[in-house]
Amino acid sequence: MNVHWPTVAIVGVGLIGGSLGRALLARKLARRVIGVGRSQASLDAARRTGAITETALDPAAVAEADLVVVATGVKSIPRLLGVVDEVVRPGTLVTDAGSTKTSIVAAWEKRRKSRRGRFVGSHPLAGSHRRGPEAADAELFTGRVAVVTPATATPPDDVAAIGEFWAAVGATVFLMSPREHDRIVAATSHAPHVMAAAIAAATPPASLPFTAGGWRDTTRIAAGDAELWADILLDNAGPVGTALGRIATAAERILAAVEAGDRRRLITLLSRAKDVRDALGS
Fold this sequence. Notes:
By secondary structure, this protein is an alpha/beta fold.
């Protein structure tokens, strides 16, 4: 058995944490996957789906782990990293799966010199509007991007180890600073969620029976957890505001062409958008 990390602890076994556990076990990358959470019912559900081999309500269970992944909402990650660091064996690798990185990495770095664990921030760009361990998928990370976001003082060997971890579950790994990560995902993930939510909120209820593929595809991500997304948007407020400003400018240009009846200008603007989308592929 090619075991990279004999025991992995996952704090927060929802969609991402559960999918990670299933991927580790399916690929025989770990013998034990300890799920740590607040609800025994949720942990039991994760165990039934094959996401974890053991459950724990006490974070002290991470003391047995060779690697710890915190996969909760971004608001709770800095605190949980502190809790984890108090109980892990010295030198244990620790990472997270949060959708924002600047505040999380900065919180760790404030006490780097006194830390027991070796933390490297990361974010798998994979997810769904679905949530919970029942939605976990062992192939969720296959062919997707995982971004590893070291601080300036992070040892290169630690960065490489966390990159290897995400690659082992099928992801393509990119390295960048926490700030660069937050700027990019503001445009590619966070602002699009706002736009999806805005479209859904602006649609009159009486019109809903007449929605088709376009509306449903565009608003799918608006079905995501509102509390989780509020925390993401607030934690990355500056870059999200910049990204939304660019979207507003593009929308205003299209609206101006529509109001002016300028078909040629409208085709140009729509064609530019089409070229960007086509460049991504299917």
